[in-house]
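Section 3.1: Structural characterization of target chains.
Under the original work plan, the team committed to producing a structural model for every single-chain target entering the pipeline before any wet-lab resources were allocated. The record below documents one such target. The sequence was received from the expression subgroup and is listed exactly as submitted; it comprises 336 residues.
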Amino acid sequence: MNATRGPERQLEEATLSSGPSENRGGTTVAGRSPAQLTWLRLRRDRTAVISGVTLVVLLVIALAAPLIEWMYGIGPQDQFQHALDRYGMPVGPGGGVSGEHWFGLEPGLGRDIFIRMTAGMRTSLLIAFAAATITSALGVVAGTLAGYVGGWLDSVIGWFIDVALALPFLIFALAVVPTVSLRFYGPREAVPAGFQVAVIIGIFAVFGWAGTARLVRGQVVSLREREFVDAARVSGAGLGHILFRELLPNLWAPILVSFSLALPAYITAEAALSFLGIGVLEPIPDLGRMIERSLGYLQTDPAYVFFPGITIFVVVFAFNLFGDALRDALDPRSTR
């Protein structure tokens, strides 16, 4: 059985260049597209399957947070002071874990940890996906133009890339986020939730596009002298056609890998900003702020820091594993 696995795999990989179908020794072999081969490699990769299923479950929970809140019967801001002792600590084992409160209650305020974690995960994933989409789009456009046009445009975009990569993200965020909020709202005014989220996504966009742009530029430089680009140029195709109809379809692999690896980075960065008090603020539930608040109860109520901490770990770890597996699946030279 093992002796036939190698030839079968080679035959499967060879169908990339064999067209829709080919007759080999009386047997018709159906050709597979690169997307189909990528899907087959992912299905064979146990790490990709486990991490992918984990991500699907987490995404469904995050998207269905309002429905879960309705079914659970408890909102993120609901307080249960009657379930706290006179010191403000949850009554019961594991920080007040019970059939009514699955992950217990927050010390002091008595809010339900499970429903706040669900809503907080939705916030983190919303910001991460929005930031990754914007930065990927900016990076692809800038990198494609710089790599294909070259000349002074390449130099200008390259200079902006170097500046963006050289700026210290954390120091820049600590200085800019409070300043922007005070520019539009006074020190005693409540900052709207949408404005907070927009500022964080904007900060990520300022820094995140440069890495994708540099990656795409390198790929375009290696492709712009290929025969299919020369043929399109000779046939009179315009700049837009060459960039988005000829070059872009050959760049999906690095773009997808860059996008998948950017998501966990943005989730971690968003949690770090909220932990430092300059990210998403009350009343929006956020995992980073939950961890920051739970540190004061680390000895008396360790379950409070455990649940949001393990949630961030699982989300980021699953995204990183799936991103690595996707990179291997998209690489035609991969032996996995």
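Residues 1-22 have pLDDT under 50 and may be disordered.
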